[in-house]
Amino acid sequence: MQNYLEFEKPLAEIEGKAEELRALARQNEEMDVSKEAAGLDDKAASLLGDMYKKLTPWQKCQVARHPDRPHCKDYIEALFTEFTPLAGDRNFADDHAVMGGLARFNDQPVVVLGHEKGNDTKSRIERNFGMARPEGYRKAVRLMDLADRFGLPVITLIDTTGAFPGKGAEERGQSEAIARSTEKCLQIGVPLVAVIIGEGGSGGAVAFAAADKLVMLEHSVYSVISPEGCASILWKDAGKMREAAEALRLTAQDLHKLGIADQVINEPVGGAQRHPKETIESVGNAIGELLGELDGSNPKALRDARRQKFLDMGSKALVA
Length: 320
Known about the structure:
The chain has 320 residues and is of the alpha/beta class. The chain has helices spanning 9-27, 34-53, 57-64, 72-79, 121-126, 134-150, 167-171, 174-187, 202-209, 227-234, 241-248, 252-257, 276-294, 299-319; strands at 80-85, 98-105, 108-115, 154-160, 192-201, 213-217, 221-223, 263-265. Strands 1, 2, 3, 4, 5, 6, 7 and 8 form an 8-stranded mixed β-sheet that branches. The termini are far apart.
């Protein structure tokens, strides 16, 4: 069953009517509704295309959070072979909000890691809705260290509202763990490609995204804070999230203009949630191209270029 977003309600009505007609036809074989149903399908397809051509920043946030979008686990299962998950931070526990391990991408050995939100009530609770605790970031540091030691490229898949803000996480050094993970991204001497597949929220996303190449799906978002959080701070009213989303310039298109995102991956009409297979395939193609560009770079050149990339960002943002 299709999950519809708030702004997709007119589309839900049309597609619902088409399905009602088909249901009646299944009950009565003498009834021919093919012409009427096809007309509604055409109308729905046209409306869907128009909607997704002019999404507002807030609507893009809603699409980025859609529960039916493919998650980290889906990308790993579809794009990687011989995936061997590695668990724990060797210090406190294993954080199920972060999954990662050794794998092969196009038969090349790599380390892959990312945020996993889960796809039903049970898995979402187990994965803490993709909000990592300190042990999740320390696990990421351990995996990146492993990749650096054995000369393996690192691929990160980012989809989180932000790091978990709970009391226990703060007691165990949440901010320090995020900083160490960000630092490790900048220190490793192997190619690092980061892909924002949904939400890239706050430092919890930056900790996986300080990469040689950062790519974003067309309807993903990347921001220092959520629109609701921003509105609560600036206007003391979370209801002003639409205005906050506009001001934050958090869309893939804005961030590409600002030089934060290196590439925007187009999504099929209607978003990744309607066409997961095609979206995953596009992400795989982009990762392959970027790894090819970085292949053969020596560790010092990678570190220097990565460092310069982030030093240049401030000046580019001011010009934009």
